[in-house]
Write a sequence for this structure.
């Protein structure tokens, strides 16, 4: 019997078993880490990437470079305009890599705060609702705790009293995305 061959074989088996255990432990830890991630953590690692975002019934895709992230929204910026997207309205995102960032950002503005900023400036916007109807054009006049008031105008028309076709009250939970045009 060759002892050297036997010991070499046993060492190789032990090393292989140890490597298999290590790989199993790594895979188990990775599954555990991924299970603790949310979509916001995945998005934080994507800042500066070009993404295509689909909004279920509200349509899509919205294309742009991922910018600012809030507590429940994110900003996509493109040459044509910007889109403030409600995080829970997203049905699919294309273009993300496999990285994630666990740490929460220091500033966590909520969607309602971003909408109040648009209302303050009466900025012309396109409003996409989760229901999938055609986007509304106009401006956000006021934002309450759980609703917004919207002055609808024809696309391209300025927000003037004579151009307003209707005033609408929309629950914030129905807002999928708000787009500005450059």
């Amino acid at each position: 019997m060759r002892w050297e061959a036997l010991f070499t074989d046993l060492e190789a088996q032990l090393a292989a078993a140890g490597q298999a255990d290590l790989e199993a432990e790594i895979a188990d830890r990775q599954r555990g880490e991924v299970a603790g991630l949310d979509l916001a953590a995945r998005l934080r690692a994507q800042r500066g990437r070009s993404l295509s975002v689909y909004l279920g019934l509200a349509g899509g895709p919205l294309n742009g470079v991922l910018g600012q992230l809030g507590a429940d929204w994110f900003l996509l910026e493109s040459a044509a305009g910007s889109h403030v997207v409600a995080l829970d309205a997203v049905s699919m995102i294309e273009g993300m890599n496999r990285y994630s960032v666990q740490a929460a950002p220091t500033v966590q503005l909520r969607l309602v705060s971003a909408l109040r900023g648009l209302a303050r400036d009466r900025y012309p916007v396109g409003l996409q609702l989760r229901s999938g109807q055609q986007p509304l054009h106009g401006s956000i006049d006021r934002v309450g705790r759980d609703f917004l008031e919207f002055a609808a105008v024809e696309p391209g028309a300025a927000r003037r009293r004579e151009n307003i076709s209707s005033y609408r009250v929309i629950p914030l939970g129905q807002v999928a995305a708000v787009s500005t045009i450059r």
Observations:
- Residues 111-181 form a domain with the SH3 type barrels. fold (CATH 2.30.30.100).
